[in-house]
TrEMBL record:
This is Class I SAM-dependent methyltransferase. One of its GO terms (molecular function) is S-adenosylmethionine-dependent methyltransferase activity. GO terms for biological process: methylation. Pfam families: Methyltransf_11. Gene3D superfamilies: Vaccinia Virus protein VP39. It comes from the Bacteria. Residues 38-118 form the Methyltransferase type domain. Keywords: Methyltransferase, Transferase. SUPFAM superfamilies: S-adenosyl-L-methionine-dependent methyltransferases.
């Protein structure tokens, strides 16, 4: 759901959108033929069109204005058989799961041996979606949680470094201030557009090789690829 409500110019976080699209679009490249993928926390299914090879199934906790899932349930109790999917993805979802170890267990259970789990999760984000916002994830936490359920890290990469963090904070402050004055829908885009342009450019500079190590340590979040260990 997070994608739909927070990545437009109207709400401000547009400068992160290209990274999200780039990473999700790489999922197809892991498969030579059609594959079955479960999108946990699918919202309005904004990623479905990017996964052209997939037999896509969306899961979310309800059907509402912000979600039209194929399966309605919690990530902590997925009503699917063991080894049901070739791939599973979560995008800004795990922070809303209080029983996070149960969620990881369920992901591993319904994923086939040799299947892939793709996760794009935040390390830094504003408190949102109360009262269901519980965690932020550093790489060490994600890797350890995954390892406990036989998911082996293949690689991880960043989205948003130091400059993106600053831009994110600027937009959050402006959005909250204008919302309290009830003028955010009218004046918000006037501020969001230049901030998006400026901090997108600064963020690209921050990805240059000379800044790379620091950039990776101060990321807004990370894109992970895990593989389920066969016959574990």
């Amino acid at each position: 759901m997070y994608f739909d409500r927070h990545f437009s110019l109207i709400t401000g976080y547009r400068f992160l959108l290209k990274d999200v699209i780039k990473y999700v679009a790489t999922i197809d490249s892991f498969f030579d033929s059609k594959y079955k993928i479960l999108d946990i926390g699918c919202g309005k299914k904004p990623y479905k069109k990017l996964l052209k090879k997939s037999d896509y199934i969306g899961l979310d906790v309800c059907e509402c204005e912000y979600a039209n899932p194929d399966i309605i349930c919690s990530s902590e109790n997925i009503p699917c058989e063991n080894d049901s999917f070739d791939a599973i993805m979560t995008v800004f979802v795990l922070d809303d799961s209080f029983y996070i170890k149960k969620t990881f267990y369920e992901i591993s259970r319904v994923l086939k041996d040799g299947g892939y789990y793709f996760a794009l999760e935040a390390q830094n984000a504003s408190i949102h979606n109360p009262p269901f916002d519980f965690f932020r994830f550093a790489p060490n936490a994600m890797i350890k949680l995954a390892k406990e359920v036989n998911l082996e890290l293949i690689r991880y990469d960043t989205y948003g470094g130091d400059f993106a963090n600053v831009g994110f904070c600027f937009i959050s402050i402006i959005r909250n201030t204008l919302s309290s004055l009830r003028i955010e829908p009218f004046l918000g885009p006037i501020f969001y557009l230049p901030i998006n342009v400026i901090f997108r450019l600064l963020d690209l500079i921050g990805r240059l090789k000379i800044f790379r190590n620091k950039y990776k340590n101060n990321s807004l979040g990370y894109f992970y690829v895990f593989k389920k260990v066969e016959n574990a």
